[in-house]
């Protein structure tokens, strides 16, 4: 039997959900900042090297904005669950390292995984932005929206680099 949807979430449940998923993205972003410089030294394709540098700088800005969100909410980041996006990133870096002997495949793997990671982060930021609207926290909404725009720009850049890379292979 079909029943009319009547969704009822209280503000504290929404805040808890928001914080839990903000923590997941924060964990992923901090892992990216620590791992990407290691990849940079082994990248073969010069455009990808520039893309990685750009991504590192954008991720640092995103982390700074998330730090500001934690300050606004008067909470601290908690790394409660190593799975999720952080686990995907860890798996991605392991797969990339499997191609360490083949620079072309390693670069293709880097592009593949970075593009996928940015896509997932964009979707996550969109949902968090909607929650911030529902929670009526305009400053947080703007910070999340800025992170979404950065992730979108990084994804577009990686897509362009990937297209150029594939055309030169």
Q: Compute the CA-based radius of gyration.
A: 18 Å
CATH class: Mainly Alpha
The total domain count is 1
CATH architectural group? Up-down Bundle
- The CATH superfamily appears as Ferritin, core subunit, four-helix bundle
* Quantity of strands, as a count: 0
- Largest pleated sheet: none
Total helical elements: 5
Task: Indicate the CATH topology.
Answer: Ferritin
Sequence of secondary-structure elements: HHHHH
Basic shape: elongated
| Relative helix content | over 70%
| Proportion of strand residues | under 5%
Describe this structure as you would to a colleague.
The chain has 169 residues and is mostly helical. It has a single domain (11-168), classed as Ferritin, core subunit, four-helix bundle (Ferritin, Up-down Bundle), CATH 1.20.1260.10. The chain is 80% helix and 0% strand. It has 5 helices and no strands. Helix 2 (46-73) runs antiparallel to helix 5. This is Ferritin-like metal-binding protein YciE. InterPro entries: DUF892_YciF-like, Ferritin-like, Ferritin-like_SF, YciF. It holds the Pfam family DUF892.
């Amino acid at each position: 039997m079909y029943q009319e949807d009547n969704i009822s979430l209280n503000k504290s449940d929404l805040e808890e959900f928001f914080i839990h998923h903000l923590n997941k993205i924060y964990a992923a972003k901090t892992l990216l900042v620590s791992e990407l410089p290691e990849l940079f030294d082994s990248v073969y394709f010069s455009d990808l090297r520039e893309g990685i540098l750009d991504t590192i700088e954008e991720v640092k800005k995103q982390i700074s904005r998330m730090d500001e969100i934690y300050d606004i909410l008067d909470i601290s980041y908690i790394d409660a669950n190593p799975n999720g996006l952080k686990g995907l990133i860890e798996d991605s870096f392991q797969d990339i390292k499997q191609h360490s002997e083949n620079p072309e495949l390693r670069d293709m793997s880097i592009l593949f995984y970075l593009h996928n990671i940015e896509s997932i982060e964009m979707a996550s930021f969109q949902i968090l932005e909607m929650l911030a609207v529902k929670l009526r926290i305009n400053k947080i909404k703007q910070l999340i929206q800025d992170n979404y725009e950065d992730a979108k720009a990084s994804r577009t850049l990686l897509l362009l680099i990937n297209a150029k890379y594939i055309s030169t292979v």
